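From the shared-data thread, chain only:
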Amino acid sequence: MTDQAAVEKLKGKFSSSVLEVKEYRGEVTLTVRAEDILAICAFCKNDLGFNMLADLCGVDLLAMGGAGPRFQVVYNIYNMKAKQRLRLKAPVAEADPRIDSVCSVWGAANWPERECWDLMGISFNNHPDLRRILMTDDWVGHPLRKDYPLQGPDRESYQGREV
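Structure, as tokens:
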């Protein structure tokens, strides 16, 4: 199956959920509604053969100045048989940064979802073990957010080294 065929099948099945399709340098990215991410990912795996979640990460668009949602969750998936990649992006609102977990589709989503929650503050509904993975349990905030203090919580700002 070609990239275009996969996109057409996704658009046919989830016509109201596919918000945008972009191709750049041979890579296809679909922006989809966050509410439908679990169904879309299950379709990609079961019907389109994307049997591997290669990566999952969060993106903070605060500095982009757009009017859209502040966050995105990005899924890089791979069809090992066809040697085909596909990128899915799901916008997530700042007011309630949450999206459904895809651990039931790809077990490999467990730790990347935990990392995304720990560092970006995006919560994953129905995640089997959503807790900090990199920061200590008593850490305040999510350090990869663009509005997070550079020196960390409750610290004086860096003044330079005294020689």
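The helical segments are 3-13, 37-46, 110-120.
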